[in-house]
Amino acid sequence: MAEEKVSRRDFLLYAMGGWAAVGLGGVLYAMYKTWEPLPEVKAAGTVRFDLSKVNPGELKVVQWRGKPVFVLRRTPDMDKCENRSIKDEYTVVIGICTHLGCIPNWEPDKKIFKCPCHGGEFNACGVNIFGPPPRPLDIPPFKIEGTTIVLGETGPEYEKMMKG
């Protein structure tokens, strides 16, 4: 067989094509990395909180995705919460009023959340009972792992609560 010689023009064409392919690969990789969320963002997507740390009648505030989440362990004299209760004793709601986005205050003596802006009131279940709020406080997606609640992940308890 006879050897075929590659002309100088063909060699330069192949070399330029190779460099263009490497450059295109680098650009595509950089684009992919900009679309992928940063590790800090991924980590802020879920928050773990031990429910056993909350005493009866006590309210704890947990930060999730920059929002306050109220974790209230209800006492027997508080309202029963149909389809809004975790383990039949915990209320977990996003602490932002559904009217204008204010942060309600917990008033333990009245056992209500009261919005300071327009006087909206929510019971211990987070259901609107007075004033301008159009709907109950929102429930964040959650998953239960023993006594720990994982905010930001959807579990069977959350799905059941949203259907009911």
UniProtKB/TrEMBL annotation:
Its cofactor is [2Fe-2S] cluster. Residues 59-151 form the Rieske domain. The keyword Transmembrane applies. Gene3D superfamilies: Rieske [2Fe-2S] iron-sulphur domain, Single helix bin. It is a single-pass membrane protein. One of its GO terms (molecular function) is 2 iron, 2 sulfur cluster binding. Keywords: 2Fe-2S, Cell membrane, Disulfide bond, Electron transport, Iron, Iron-sulfur, Membrane, Metal-binding, Translocase, Transmembrane, Transmembrane helix, Transport. The chain crosses the membrane at residues 12-32. It holds the Pfam family UCR_Fe-S_N. One of its GO terms (cellular component) is plasma membrane. InterPro entries: Rieske_2Fe-2S (IPR017941), Rieske_2Fe-2S_sf (IPR036922), Rieske_Fe-S_prot (IPR014349), Rieske_Fe-S_prot_C (IPR005805), TAT_signal (IPR006311), Ubiq_cytC_Rdtase_Fe-S_su_TAT (IPR019470), Ubiquinol_cyt_c_Rdtase_Fe-S-su (IPR006317). It is found in: Cell membrane. It catalyses: a quinol + 2 Fe(III)-[cytochrome c](out) = a quinone + 2 Fe(II)-[cytochrome c](out) + 2 H(+)(out). It comes from the Bacteria. NCBIfam families: Rieske_proteo. Component of the ubiquinol-cytochrome c reductase complex (complex III or cytochrome b-c1 complex), which is a respiratory chain that generates an electrochemical potential coupled to ATP synthesis. Belongs to the Rieske iron-sulfur protein family. The main subunits of complex b-c1 are: cytochrome b, cytochrome c1 and the Rieske protein. This is Ubiquinol-cytochrome c reductase iron-sulfur subunit.
